[in-house]
Amino acid sequence: MNIEYLKYFAELAKIQHYGKAAQALNISQPGLSHAIKTLEEEYGVPLFQKEGRNVSVSSYGKELMNEVEEILDAYLRLEERAAGLRTEEKTVRIGSVYPLAPGTIPRMLREFGATFPFIIYNRLTPEIAEGLQKGKYDIGFCSDLLKSDELEYYPIRGSYIAVAVPKGHPLEKRDTVSLKEIAYYPQIMFSKTSGFRKLQEQLFAAEGISVKPVCAAEEIEVVAGLVENGFGIAVLPYMDIVRLHNIATIPVETSLWKSKFYIARRKYGIRSEQEDAFFQYWRN
């Protein structure tokens, strides 16, 4: 089936004149005649009948006309959708875990010199994995290995446990501190609804330290804000978000918790050159 020939058939059926139809289609009249003859030979029935200088659609042509129009409509929708995909391809969709989204990802894009448009979505690692596999995201930044044969992923940086202290605090200039050293200061904890609260409790419990928090908050930016305003100090996984506050972070001497962040994408897919170059730049 030749889609162009079907277009010729529909146009001739509408105009009912070979010369005028050929002119409207911007092709030669012999070319139009050849196309219609080819269709008639393919379907085994006459599609048009002569009426003086004009033609009219035969009974067989009328039977096929609805199907031809449906095929042409579907083809037009396909072309429009393909054009939309080409436009969407220019925008790189990035799914990122929250610790990396505010600072690390913008800095990585700037360092690479990205000129492509992009969208950054804050998501949890399982959502990123699902989104990558379903084609919702082009590139993902996650905090755990995504165990899927459909994805490729590479570590880009590690994380560590730090203590956040307000500027001017006695510990501010230290290179590292122990949990026992910081246990004497008022502690700001994550609320029990936060996944980080259990981590804090495990860290102190491993050292045999009992801590009673002076206050708690669910989100890390709120915890950082409380530290900044002098309510206490906080033990937390280091995240770029704390850099937005006027506080200092000092690595804590502990081997209980280690984490890595990864860049990930589908193993196979249609990619723009810039998107692929960005991924390759950071996977090395």
From TrEMBL:
<dbReference type="InterPro" id="IPR036388">
    <property type="entry name" value="WH-like_DNA-bd_sf"/>
</dbReference>
<dbReference type="InterPro" id="IPR000847">
    <property type="entry name" value="LysR_HTH_N"/>
</dbReference>
<keyword id="KW-0175">Coiled coil</keyword>
<keyword id="KW-0804">Transcription</keyword>
<protein>
    <submittedName>
        <fullName>LysR family transcriptional regulator</fullName>
    </submittedName>
</protein>
<dbReference type="Pfam" id="PF00126">
    <property type="entry name" value="HTH_1"/>
</dbReference>
<dbReference type="InterPro" id="IPR005119">
    <property type="entry name" value="LysR_subst-bd"/>
</dbReference>
<feature type="coiled-coil region">
    <location>
        <begin position="61"/>
        <end position="88"/>
    </location>
</feature>
<keyword id="KW-0238">DNA-binding</keyword>
<keyword id="KW-0805">Transcription regulation</keyword>
<dbReference type="Pfam" id="PF03466">
    <property type="entry name" value="LysR_substrate"/>
</dbReference>
<dbReference type="InterPro" id="IPR036390">
    <property type="entry name" value="WH_DNA-bd_sf"/>
</dbReference>
<comment type="similarity">
    <text>Belongs to the LysR transcriptional regulatory family.</text>
</comment>
<dbReference type="InterPro" id="IPR050950">
    <property type="entry name" value="HTH-type_LysR_regulators"/>
</dbReference>
<feature type="domain" description="HTH lysR-type">
    <location>
        <begin position="1"/>
        <end position="58"/>
    </location>
</feature>
